[in-house]
Amino acid sequence: MHLTSLSALFTTALLAFASLSEAVLPGTWPPMDQPPPIKPEWVKLVDKKKLPKAPIQSAQAADCSKAVEFCIWSCNTCLRNASDVSTCPNDKDWGFSFDDGPSTFTPALLDFLKSTNTKVTFAVVGSRVFQNPEILQRIKEEGHEIVVHTWSHPALTTISTEQIIAEIKWTELAIQTAIGLTPKYMRPPRGDMDDRVRSIATQLGYKILMWDRDTFDWKSADDPNYQPSWIYDNFTQWVTDSKGHISLEHDLYEIGATNAPYAVSIVRKAGYTIKPVSVCTGTAAYKENVQLVASGPVPADEQIWGMACWDETLLVTRQMNYQTPNHV
Ligand SMILES: *[C@@H]1O[C@H](CO)[C@@H](O)[C@H](O)[C@H]1NC(C)=O
Ligand SMILES: *[C@@H]1O[C@H](CO)[C@@H](O)[C@H](O)[C@H]1NC(C)=O
Ligand SMILES: [Zn+2]
After folding, report:
1. pTM of the prediction?
2. Which intervals hold domain NodB homology (predicted)?
3. Which residue range(s) make up the domain with 194?
4. Most CB contacts within 10 A, which of 221, 227, 247, 302?
């Protein structure tokens, strides 16, 4: 291990220590990972008469008989052009998105992104913003984009309109309280949405952020057979078409967060420019006037040490992965 990673490790350890003493978001907030209370003043923001009458599902994609009529993504990956963004429109633009944090794995990922001058998008869960406001502050200060990803991460087609509004607005309020910004994009948990969900989000001022390249890294949380090499192999294959893309990974899970640098390295080497999604789509990230920018060049010293180090580790990791079957 060379000096750069040692110092990154040291910084991470310091941050972890500091966060023990740092406060959660001030004020009174709903419990972690549970449906938050409905607020009448927020319910009024949505005109129920305008909502498409998509039936509330008993479970995600339980009833797909009206999948085409109501464009139910979980049934048929249906997207609506007017509200949904799932790719970077220009060739050789890449939007990385990391979901479900901020978590204890996020600071080390931020260290890597900072040292390589890489700008990405984080879709954050409100109750984890409450828990880790100082990490959200860092995400903002280091020029990444922040997207609303609900308070308790439910499948939105399965809950009431009032409850969807509460999931979005509590998260919006937590982000505003932590960093003073109001995102213009929201990402539905598990991509689960239909025209009712779209109309609610749109009436609350949001565009919907989806993706067109999925690593399925979340499976690593409870699948012991999940292979990190799948992430590298997926990216290696995806970059070959040179088209614009938005990828989905998770900074809540160790495998997703710790393998992200390899993915960034693969995409950069293929000649892509990595951009926050609002930058690659040429839209506003926030209601407030904040202009985000694309990633810049990797600093010279990182090119020699940092990136080379990641590539070297990638090589070793891959060899280990590839050897495993022969030794079973
Ligand atoms: C999306 O909308 C744009 C602008 O209205 C249009 O040019 C494009 O063809 C639409 N794409 C699809 C897939 O419907
Ligand atoms: C991409 O990842 C999936 C798991 O999410 C895996 O099954 C598949 O083999 C990977 N593709 C490549 C080309 O490695
Ligand atoms: Zn999620």
Report:
1. 0.88
2. 92-275
3. 85-322
4. 247
